[in-house]
Amino acid sequence: MSSVTDVDGGADEPGWDVDPEDEIAPVVEMVGSQLKIWRESVGLRVSELAPRIGYGEDQIRKVERGARIPRPEYLDSMDRELGAGGKITAMQEKLAEARYPKPVRELAKLEAKAVEVAAYGSHNLHGLLQTKEYATALFEMRRPAHVPDEVQRLVEARIARHSIFERVPVPSLNFVQEEVTLRRPIGGTGVLRHQLEHLLELGRLRHVEIQVMPTDRDDHAGMAGEMQVLKFNDGTAVGRAEGVFNGRPVSEPKQLRIIELRCGIIRAQALTPRESLAFIEQVLGEI
Q1: Please, which residues have CB within 8 angstroms of residue 81's CB and are 6 or more apart in sequence?
Q2: Is 244 helix (H, G, I), strand (E, B) or coil?
Q3: Can the peptide bond before residue 144 be classed as cis, meaning omega within 30 degrees of 0?
Q4: Low-confidence ranges of the chain (pLDDT < 50)
Q5: Can you tell me whether residue 247 is helix, strand or coil?
Q6: What share of the chain is helix, strand, coil (3-state, %, to 5)?
Q7: Which letter does DSSP use for residue 27 in this model?
Q8: Are 212 and 231 in contact (CB under 8 A)?
Q9: How far apart are CA 198 and CA 277, in angstroms?
Q10: 162 CB contacts (<8 Å, ≥6 apart)?
Q11: Contact between 202 and 261 (Cβ < 8 Å)
């Protein structure tokens, strides 16, 4: 985690702005009001606290009125300077989910309930498969560019979703990746090497299947783009696919059948999981 003086976020960036309409806004407001009470209880003005924790006065006020989600390191600094004995640091648990963008939180909730995930990726590796370094490089190359603060937020949110691999009972996770996603050196060859090693580790888990779609396939059901289907324990499901239904998530059985059909054909056209692991090892050996 970056310190409050790092260029990634900087000394004047204690957290992330909050959308007042977001469902997490009340939680952020509550934490902010508690921080203000702690500060006032020790007799410190904002102007006195700011230089002691390395943040600007305006930023502290934003946090206290609930307009900004404080970073974990900001809470650590406040805990230390106000002598809270760990009570302010403990607020990180309340804000753990709030730190992530709303679309990511919604996706994470669906993944947390899913008993089966089937996904096809064409341009880059699926978010659940990405290492931290790969994800960072991916977000850093976005145009228009993200500020460093937002890159860190997005990366942390993506890595937090990886808890799905440790769930009990374990869900069935199936990924089909285009060959090019294994060869494109996102972040450089060192990052790619580590990423491929990570894929091999995941692919050896009993509840995870990773398949590769070779570039030389002359018949391909996924030419319209990426797609994903999440199935739940109650028999319902939600899916999304580029090129159909305007790319929106759908849950109607008639619409889901189209996406599931494509996913099934793609898996049949790709290399088997065992062949795919051997292919990944081959690509790794070529780096």
Answers
A1: 49, 52, 53
A2: coil
A3: yes
A4: 1-14
A5: helix
A6: 50, 15, 35
A7: H
A8: no
A9: 11
A10: 128
A11: no
In single-letter form, the type of residue at position 88 comes to I
Half-sphere exposure of 122 (CA within 13 A, CB side): 13
Q: What angle do CA 236, 242, 247 make, to 5 degrees?
A: 65
Q: Tens digit of pLDDT for each residue in 154-179? A: 898 899 899 999 999 999 999 999 99
CB atoms within 10 A of CB 214: 14
CA 164 to chain CA centroid, Å, is: 12
Q: Which residues contact 193 (CB under 8 A, 6 or more apart)?
A: 284, 287
Residue in the structure block whose two tokens are 């809470």: 75
Q: What is the crossing angle of helices 273-286 and 189-203, to 10°?
A: 160
pLDDT digits (tens, 9 = 90+) for 224-276: 999 999 999 999 999 999 988 988 889 999 999 999 999 999 999 999 999 99
| Residue 135 CA, distance from chain mean position | 8
Give the residue ranges of DSSP H helices in the chain. 25-41, 46-53, 57-64, 72-82, 92-95, 102-113, 132-140, 148-160, 179-183, 189-203, 253-269, 273-286
The dihedral of CA 243, 268, 138, 70: what is its sign? Answer: positive
Q: Which residues contact 286 (CB under 8 A, 6 or more apart)?
A: none
Q: What is the pLDDT of residue 14?
A: 44
Mapped onto helix, strand or coil, the DSSP state of residue 15 is: strand
pTM of structure: 0.73
